User: Which sequence fits this backbone?
């Protein structure tokens, strides 16, 4: 095998709690995305035999076609990860991971006689325990049974992938996806004992959006998770300072009013007088401890709680700047200013738009973080939002795979290099 072959067959995979992003180096800038979930079909049913479905688990774009309108859908639909972690003995969850991985590889496998398998770079949460690495490597091996799909594989932590994509050896990566947020200082390698993890991501903002929709009279829509997510992405705004933004909205209602239509349906959503609540959505993702949210908690909205998964604590309510400070302050004093001067925000939950005409009132994530840190007395902060933050982990996987020489062998002590299957 040659360096040249490797370079043209790098394949990135970002295992997210909500979405799985994957694709080979040749795909360009944007990977494929499917939901991280699998549906277990009742294989013994006569219909599935007649229809020629011989799989046990379905994943990917066709999954919705298999959903039966039955009550046990909830039980058959398996989301394998919680906060980026798959439990060691959760057999069905691992089956879904295997199926997702297979689906990704098969959809790009070439008939080309020169195809000798991909060089797979997979990315897991920085808090992922070692058994996840072992089980994933085993899965790659099992998938090779019929045809060589994975020639070699390596696994890197998501925040490191982001640092690699930005070619920044010293930084703090804040990776905020759907289900969780990882704050990870990096000095060449992730500083593991300084990592702060939150049990919160874009899904928390969905919860609040759902409450807002209920209050505005869209109770039926509020129950549909995917729709709520779309509404959040379209109407949610991130205020610089919440009080100022609410005040502005009260004085200039026409500036924040918005009406959206859901494509392919007759649904129209207009928050009317309550349009100022758009600012609550972004604020909640960054700072759920703001007193304004108390009334929602009192009315029964669930609070993001602290959880312990494996050996890791995930905090529910810590605000994002507090989490950054906590992580940085676990590092050496000499390093701290360098970390504050390179904060990289990555993950879908940092995609907040700052529409024209609302400058300074609705801001982007980097501006919000700078403001929050300044409020806590930290100056000289430099923060950037990764370019297309949802895909930066995947991009880092591709850059890493391209750069690591094909003959550099995997070492468990350092957790780097290629594990070979050929
Ligand atoms: N324009 C937007 N405004 C606000 N939020 C957005 C926007 N676009 C995407 N998001 C949110 O980003 C989240 C998905 O991010 P991402 O794909 O990084 O998560 P993930 O990798 O599946 O999860 P995790 O990293 O927690 O395991 C969703 O909650 C989604 O609603
Ligand atoms: Mg992710």
Assistant:
């Amino acid at each position: 095998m040659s360096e040249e072959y490797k370079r043209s067959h790098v394949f990135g995979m970002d295992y997210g709690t909500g979405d799985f992003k994957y694709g080979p180096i040749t795909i360009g800038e944007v990977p494929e995305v499917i939901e991280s979930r699998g549906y277990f079909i009742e294989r013994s049913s006569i219909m599935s035999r007649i229809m020629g479905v011989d799989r046990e688990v379905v994943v990917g774009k066709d999954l919705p076609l298999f959903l039966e309108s039955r009550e046990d859908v909830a039980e058959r639909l398996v989301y394998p990860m919680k906060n980026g972690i798959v439990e060691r003995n959760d057999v069905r969850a691992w089956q879904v991971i295997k199926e997702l991985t297979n689906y990704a590889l098969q959809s790009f496998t070439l008939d080309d006689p020169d195809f000798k398998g991909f060089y797979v770079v997979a990315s897991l949460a920085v808090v992922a325990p070692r058994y996840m690495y072992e089980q994933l490597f085993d899965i790659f091996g099992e998938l090779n049974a019929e045809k060589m799909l994975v020639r070699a594989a390596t696994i890197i932590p998501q925040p490191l992938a982001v640092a690699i994509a930005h070619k920044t050896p010293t930084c703090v990566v804040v990776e905020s996806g759907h289900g969780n947020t990882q704050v990870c200082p990096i000095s060449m390698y992730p500083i593991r004992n300084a990592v702060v993890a939150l049990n919160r991501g874009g899904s928390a903002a969905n919860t609040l959006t759902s409450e807002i929709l209920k209050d505005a009279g869209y109770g039926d829509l509020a129950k549909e998770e995917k729709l709520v997510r779309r509404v959040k992405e379209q109407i949610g705004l991130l205020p610089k300072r919440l009080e100022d933004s609410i005040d502005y909205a009260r004085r200039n209602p026409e500036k924040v009013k918005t009406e959206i239509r859901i494509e392919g349906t007759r649904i129209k959503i207009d928050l009317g007088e309550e349009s100022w609540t758009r600012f609550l959505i972004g604020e909640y993702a960054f700072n759920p401890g703001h007193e304004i949210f108390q009334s929602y908690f009192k009315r029964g909205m669930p609070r993001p709680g602290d959880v312990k998964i494996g050996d890791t604590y995930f905090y529910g309510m810590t605000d994002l700047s507090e989490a950054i400070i906590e992580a940085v302050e676990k590092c050496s004093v000499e390093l701290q200013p360098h970390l504050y001067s390179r904060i990289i925000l990555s993950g879908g939950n940092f995609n907040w738009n700052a529409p024209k005409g609302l400058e300074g009132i609705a801001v982007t994530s980097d501006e919000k973080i700078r403001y929050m840190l300044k409020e806590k007395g930290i100056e000289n902060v430099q923060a950037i939002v990764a370019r297309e933050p949802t895909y930066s982990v995947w991009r880092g996987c591709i850059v890493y795979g391209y750069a690591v020489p094909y003959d550099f062998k995997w070492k468990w002590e350092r957790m780097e290099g290629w594990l070979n299957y050929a």
